[in-house]
Amino acid sequence: MSVDVLQTVAVDRAMLDHYGMEFVSAAEGRALLRAVVAGKMMNAAGYANGALTFALADTACAYALNSAGARGVTLNANISYLKAAKAGMTLEASAQIIKLGGRVAHLEADVRCGEDRVAKGTFTFMLV
Q1: Which of 38, 39, 55, 74 has the most CB atoms at less than 10 Å from its CB?
Q2: How far is 97 from 111, CA to CA, in rounded Å?
């Protein structure tokens, strides 16, 4: 199956806008997204809600998969939050395919703010 990443990004526009995500690139099983932490994404403790970080990592994985010509949905995810993000910080999520099988794909994602790693995740996608 051939998947056009830019077409997927266009379909995802409302979700991307909700989280303030910007598609940067996707090719050869890798993808990169960016988001500036907005005030609306802050939790009561004054840090970015983990949902933003997770959504960045998950979406980067989906686009990495799309860039390899496949489409899938998240079957399992494990994310470790390593550093809190604050309002105004720019987060970048990079993802890459580790293994693309016939029914599932395994991916890794890394979320950073500059040189600082904010989160690291592993994802399993069911191919559809």
Answers
A1: 55
A2: 15
pTM for the complete prediction? Answer: 0.95
| pLDDT at residue number 2 | 60
Nearest to 103 by CA among 70, 69, 61, 64: 70
Q: Using an 8 Å Cβ cutoff, are 3 and 63 in contact?
A: no
Distances (CA, A) of 10 to 13, 47, 65: 5, 29, 16
Domains of the chain: 5-127 (3.10.129.10)
Q: What is the token pair recorded at 55? A: 């959504």
Taking the C-alpha atoms of residue 69 and residue 63, their distance in angstroms, rounded to an integer, is 10
Neighbours of 117 (CB within 10 A): 13
Place of tokens 């997204």: 33
Given a cut of 90, is residue 53 above it in pLDDT? yes
| Mean pLDDT across the chain | 96
Query: How many C-beta neighbours within 10 Å does residue 122 have?
Result: 16
